[in-house]
Amino acid sequence: MAEAHGPAGPRRRLGAELRRLRNKSGLHLDDVAREMSCSTSKISRLENGKGIPKLPDVRELMRIYGVTSDTEHDMLLRLVRDGRQQGWWEPYTEGVQTARHVLDIPGRYAAMETEAVGYRGFTAMVLPGLLQTAAYSRALLTALLPGHANQDIESLVQLRLQRQEALRRHTAPLQMAAVLDEALFSRVVGGPALMAEQIDAIARTAALPNVDVRVLPLSVGIHRAHIGQFTILQLRESLGQTVYIESHAGDTYLDSEEDTKLYAEVFDDVVAKSLSPRDSAALMAEYLHRYQSQRPERGSHDRVLYQQFLQLRRVCRGRAQPRRNSPRSGQQGRGTDHPRLLP
Fold this sequence. Notes:
10% strand
């Protein structure tokens, strides 16, 4: 899969340029809104890359800001055109209704993730979409969206699977560092057989050179991320970072330097308290064995699945540094090697 691009990047770049031009002109949002006969929120949304840019609006803003350079003029208009293109994810979200507390704006996160080169995330309730199997995602969405048609559920499942291709593309694959709360593996989604296959899939993804998956053991107790899960996206080029937070009040995106620095510190805290990749794989293998033992019959498929996981565990061991302490010897067994994080 080639590196994907969407309209979110051009919109953010256009917004940054419009903000720079406004500041250079010495104008406040109120001044521009009054000149444009519109609300300040409209100008603010354009500058934050959240509004869909329109050519007449941007042309009027260039007039107000005194843009005379042909090069700058052409660059801004090109960003407007790129910012109005359809995103690759839109066929998957077209017609899918939002759901209060569960599904805020279908496709909005995918738009932002498309512009990312790095992912850092902590999850405590359900697995991140980049690690979910189709069966896990389908069971999860069916439970969370009981009022949605099967066709809508399947579209959202396929959207998640398509997002995962960013981890396996040949050119500039997405760099992923994920910390999973151990409680995730006790929270059964879809039954023991599904959970066994899901754990096997995590191990396969964790074996990729651009992916680092760690487990935060229950023995750690309270930690700085106990309030809830979050994702930090490192965006391409000069777009900076953004923090994505899911809540009952809807999705929240934070991109101020103060906010991104705070969440980076919280993520570093849970990384320091989590198990190493090798010990994380060993702990997941225990859960895999537990779920396999709960199945009514253990046939050849189960034995093959378990052998595959053991093989992947050996791969993980080859990537990790020798552990200092074993999590089963009374020590917490925290990893000492830090994941490959972007600065």
